[in-house]
Write a structure and sequence with these properties.
CATH superfamily: Alpha/Beta hydrolase fold, catalytic domain
Helix content: 25-40%
Low-confidence stretches: none
Strand content: 15-25%
Number of strands: 9
CATH topology: Rossmann fold
Number of helices: 9
Shape: globular
Length: 283
Amino acid sequence: MTTALIPHRVGLLARYPAFPSQYIEPRTIEVWVPAQYVAAPERPCGVLYMHDGQNLWYPAAASGQAWNVDLALAALIDQGVVPPTIVVAIPNHPQLRFREYMPQAPAAAERGRAAVEAYARRAHLPEGDEVLQADRYLAFLVDELKPFIDAHYRTLPDAAHTALLGSSMGGLISLYALTQYPAVFGGAGCVSTHWPALDGITVDWLPGHLPDPATHRIYFDFGTQDIDRDYEPYQRRVDAMLRAAGYTAGQNWLTIKDDGAGHRENFWAARLPAALRFLLGQQ
């Protein structure tokens, strides 16, 4: 499977329609590279994998407000704040988004199983259907997509130069990926993380599952309007878990409260530079 890099608003973009997978439904994968990728052909780049990929740079696909990841990241690279970084945009599957992004391991506990069963009834899923598919989604990232990216682009493939970022349920799956594959991913950006999903079972599960703070970096933020107004109690619990696990605020973990911000792309786009600086910049 080959494709060409074509000029984008800034940098260049490649598109892989119906990217094949044995784990998930095929979807179009897009890869953005900064101008420096072409200007310095001897230099490999770190990689940022982003969920809800259709919202990253196309306003029409993002209810009128894209994240403008390419513009934000290009500006930070030009300023020397972060090194040249490749972005891999993975779109959600509209009918499977919750099921692919909801962390699966927390459902193994008794309270988790009850919450998943209640969700399956509400969603009218067939009996015996695989309700949560996050482990399959992560297997796609780790076993199929990342090897393809590392083989076809000049990347720094180690965990220290490989991060994930997403919002809402995308924040949950970013953190979950870090817990399940700490040797693959070294950083997670969790924007307006939807902690209340399935009665907050992910928060209950986190103690004992956080990756080593010596080698990992985690960014969180939340607003105070819309459904974000429900997030602070959960986030403060998670913050306490991070401290107990040896994380240090401002060093390998950062939580930002954005007063007045709601649960929408324009607020996430406004906070994106802070997330990128923390995840990708030199500490």
